[in-house]
Write a structure and sequence with these properties.
Elements (H helix, E strand, L loop, with lengths): L1 H29 L6 H4 L6 H20 L9
Helix pairs in contact: 1-3
Length: about 80
């Protein structure tokens, strides 16, 4: 179960981070709106870097959860 939860959190982190990165790049360099994040919230371009950080944090938490050693009691 721990592995499934880790993969789920990690996958959500990749999606959130990618959307934050795409939104930041599109607003900063092209002056347009890409992705689906702008349909949910209207944020300045620098706030999208915070979304990228949240995505990276979710990836790290997911990997650590997935790689946590399983406890086995051998008697």
């Amino acid at each position: 179960m721990r592995t499934a939860i880790g993969y789920t959190i990690e996958s959500i982190g990749y999606v959130v981070g990618a959307q934050g990165l795409v939104s930041f790049a599109s607003q900063t360099f092209f002056g347009t709106e890409w992705g689906w994040l702008h349909k949910v919230v209207d944020l300045p371009s620098t706030a999208h870097l915070g979304i990228v950080a949240v995505g990276l944090a979710l990836v790290v938490v997911g990997v650590r959860t997935r790689q946590a050693p399983a406890r086995r009691d051998i008697a």
